Amino acid sequence: MLRGIRKASSNWLGKTIMAVVMGVLIVSFGIWGIADIFRGFGQSTLATVGHTEISTEQFRQLYTDRLQQIGRQFGRPMTMDQARAFGLDRQVLQQTIAEAALDEEARRLGLAQSEEETKRMIFSDPNFKGPNGSFDPARFAAAIRQFGYSEARYVADQRKVTLRHQIAGTISAGVTPPKVMIEALSHFQNEQRSIEYVKLNAAQAGTIDPPSPETLAGYFDKHKIQFRAPEYRKIAFVAITPEEIGKWSEVSDEDAKKLYETRRDTLGRPEKREVQQIVFPNMEEAMAARTRLGSGTSFDELAKERGLKASDVDLGMVTKSEIIDPAIANAAFSLPSGEISQPVQGRFGVAVVKIGKIVPGVDVSYDSVSQRLKKEIATDRARKQVSDLRDKMEDERGGGASVIEAAKKLGLASVTIDAVDRSGRLPNGQVATNIPPGLDVVTQAFNSDVGVDNDPISYHGGYVWFDVLGITPSRERSLDEVKDQVEAKWHEDQVASRLRTKATEMVQKLDHGAKLADEAAAAGLKVETAAGFKRDATPPGVPASAISAAFRTAKDGAGQTPSAGNGEWVVFRVTDITVPPVDMASDDIKKMKGQLQRSLQDEQIAQYVAKLETQIGTSINEAAFAQVTGANSNDN
Asked: Is-above-0.85 flag for pTM?
């Protein structure tokens, strides 16, 4: 819209029209007041929680980030249709509202966190520590930048998170699962069953003659929806990300070798040593102790005399960088195994160090990591170019250039996909391989239209611009187009129907006293067994559907179930059921108790937040929510 306004006002007629429009807006503000014009929900507000407004753009960013995270985990983008099918859209909305409600409550209660405490928490976060074990500002800046945070925003968010935890911790304190719940869950999880079973496959279905033309046509008419051609869209996009720009950057061996030398210890496996130390208050006591150690007194005896425990003396198997005091680290890594150092003046006193086992380090050659280091350097340099290229791309787009035209002018590589459906598949059924992992450009394209000037998508620390170049509507295919597919599906259904009938007949005989071994021999099948499996087990060769069915069947009872994906049917009989006793002192039960406790605490907090949302007032702009999550795209 803003880009359109800028284009419209670029000539004298546009400027005149815009002046009139803005004049009308100014007059309306003067007469009615701004509050009346924006009363209720505006397009920019998706939800209100008490006095907190959640903007549409804010939620769009949160929702897009979440979909991209899931896409990266699975190695392929998650579409908005899939996200709604899993209920992810409502989950993200409820989480966002819950956080806003807790923030409102924190303000009402007057909770606060000092700047010093916030800094302490960030400095102690292991994600931001460098190779030397201390806070690394560069690592911190790179980490938060990767997730789209500025330092001020990250610090503010961490302060909010801490206050939410304070409230949640108070609400859930003292929640403990009752013994009867633990026992019931233990019985459910640890119950074991054994079965004997046979597998019926296509061979047991017998010969199935090809369908007549009339039969195939009738089957096709009843199942046309299965063979319908989906809607396809032609799209073009260009990515401006540090990784993409970094591909074209040249990094010298000199620069890469500098980084290699800086990280040499962390690239390979550093040497480790068993280190013990005794710290003395002054040099005189340390020298006297070292003399005794040289005269036959053991290190352990000396430690015991000074009232030290093993944990006070033993540093364990450590690398040089893991020893906080540089003087002690230098002394410890300059001695051979079994040696005891002379007194060393350290930061916290005078120490005598003993060396035990030494595990040599493994050095990594420059050649083996040079390409990775060059790519990292190129990507880091490219981050500085992303902002400039983004502005240039927006200027080109604002001037009316298409994505392909703008990319060509800026020397960037654009990607064109002639036809892709909502699931990211091409007309041949294959997944489009030229879409970067985690980039959900397909869903965005299906929520747009030809000729629409789309906003860029945030992606991997950069941006992606896209155009919809064409739309091929969904249509019904003719039988001639999909005859082979229809005949294969008809044959598959015939086999399944016959196997279901045979399995049903076999189960009925077993229920009337027949033995599975006899029925299997008559059908030319092999009886197999699976013993002592739990509900979540995956015994080799036993379909998951048979496991579930076995736990719904009484002892000595028979059952049948299809085997997903391979056209087989399984007929089984439950031969044994075992429920182990509950040992409340066992590690497994203690772990289960902890999981139950966390679950109950989460439920307690959820109920509290729900009550809180009701008390402070929560409203959702369903139209804006549907627009962001793509729910209204199916109405077009």
From this structure: no
